[in-house]
Amino acid sequence: MVKICCIGAGYVGGPTMAVIALKCPKIEVAVVDISVSRIAAWNGDQLPIYEPGLEDVVKQCRGRNLFFSTDIENHVAEADIVFVSVNTPTKTQGLGAGKAADLTYWESAARMIADVSKSNKIVVEKSTVPVKTAEAIEKILTHNSREIKYQILSNPEFLAEGTAIQDLFNPDRVLIGGRETPEGQKAIQALKDVYAHWVPEDRIITTNLWSAELSKLAANAFLAQRISSVNAMSALCEATGADVTQVSHAIGKDTRIGPRFLNSSVGFGGSCFQKDILNLVYICECNGLTEVANYWKQVIKVNDYQKNRFVNRIVSSMFNTVSGKKIAILGFAFKKDTGDTRETPAIDVCKGLLGDKAKLSIYDPQVTEDQIQRDLSMKKFDWDHPIHLQPMSPPASKQVNVVWDAYQAAKDAHGVCILTEWDEFKTLDYQKIFDNMRKPAYIFDGRNILDVAKLREIGFIVYSIGKPLDPWHKDTLAVA
Ligand code: NAD
Ligand code: UDX
């Protein structure tokens, strides 16, 4: 029986290993983590992450061939294949701060593997890492072990949150990079055999190590670049009277462009896009490729511009001040169907409004008050360091009120902002919301999910990203 151990029981380690355990009943899978509370949650009724379909998969194999544990050393020692799926955040201090990946957690996992191993192992990079990380890991392992042989593979994960289980069941591709030696090829085959339980062979791609590592950063950069491109167009649409939804539809019909990932929004969020592009930029700079670095930097600049533009639009349309005004924030997660708030655009929008002294009433169906207060009090990049796992509650801000109902959030508000595209926001009773708001009543749709014409009929002043502007907003442009 093959034994797999995965270090890191987070958004990637948990779901990925649960699906491997489900699809390969003869493989024993242990997921280990230093966070005692996270492992307890994986073993309890309330899983630590919200992901459609995940609970069902976990319930089918937990205790059968899927185990969650804090006994890291024993499980690593016993495993044939060790996945490393720890966080690789942006460095906050020292060389490369604000750009380079912080590999502290990766390195400590590698050193621990070297310390406890008693048999040969395949070590799989599941985390997203800079190109050439495999070489560094190889050095740590070989310089610290006696007689034991390691093969390092790069097997980056492409799942998206909110659709993780679907993505894992039916991946566009599985990518495995390894050494071009006979031992390296043997290790690739061993990992291929695991995925071959459910992934068609033509979707399992093999490459050399550096191509696999770089492909992950490249895929995220390309995806984020599409969003920044469409968001840049949204600003031009507002200036010209074009409608970004129509433009996206028209260009997406070109099969060379394709229709997906062309939704204009208040900005992309999530733990990956910004972090991985910054990492790519840093690698380009280290290799003297300034123009290439600047090209990718622009994707992030446009994303920041989009978030700022949204805040400025709100403030300028409300007579250039939101001081003391109540603004309802509907949606705080970085996208629908997840409770994850890492790098959510809601943080920047809320901080922008708080900076102008607004009072916020926030509702998200999956995000707790504690999480929201923590996010709004945390410094940039601090969220992805293990401190975020500690249950520390910051003092609640007097300007921020978190509620459990969209209608309550909007009651007596001057404006409503849609920041996450949760389905339930499409079917709210907007007449009821309008009746209970201060007038003029504003709606700012940062996800383009609402029927603008209907809202205008009710009496709202509506701003929807990249859509033709109300005369009201055109008039206030001069003020902005
Ligand atoms: P996460 O923060 O949810 O999980 C990482 C876990 O690793 C944490 O629970 C942490 O306690 C644990 N950990 C850290 N150091 C450890 C150690 N030495 N020993 C044991 N456990 C340790 O992060 P995530 O979202 O699962 O991301 C993990 C990696 O996967 C990152 O490199 C990320 O870029 C990449 N990735 C993430 C996604 C995504 O959608 N979240 C998708 C693809 C790739
Ligand atoms: C992303 C990649 O899609 C995935 O392959 C990788 O493994 C991890 O990073 P994730 O961040 O979970 O996944 O979600 P994704 O669906 O890519 O959305 C990222 C952000 O872009 C969200 O804030 C989303 O709302 C935004 N987005 C997405 C848009 O603004 N417009 C779009 O058309 C698509």
TrEMBL record:
Catalytic activity: UDP-alpha-D-glucose + 2 NAD(+) + H2O = UDP-alpha-D-glucuronate + 2 NADH + 3 H(+)
One Gene Ontology term from the biological process aspect of the record: glycosaminoglycan biosynthetic process
GO cellular component: nucleus
Record-annotated active site: 272
Pathway: Nucleotide-sugar biosynthesis; UDP-alpha-D-glucuronate biosynthesis; UDP-alpha-D-glucuronate from UDP-alpha-D-glucose: step 1/1
Chain positions recorded as NAD(+) binding sites: 8-13, 33, 38, 86-90, 127-128, 161, 272-275, 342
One example GO MF annotation: UDP-glucose 6-dehydrogenase activity
Keywords on record: NAD, Oxidoreductase
EC number: 1.1.1.22
Signal sequence, renumbered to the chain: none
Domain of life assignment: Eukaryota
Family assignment from sequence similarity: Belongs to the UDP-glucose/GDP-mannose dehydrogenase family.
Protein name: UDP-glucose 6-dehydrogenase
Protein's organism: Citrus clementina
High-level lineage: Eukaryota, Viridiplantae, Streptophyta, Embryophyta, Tracheophyta
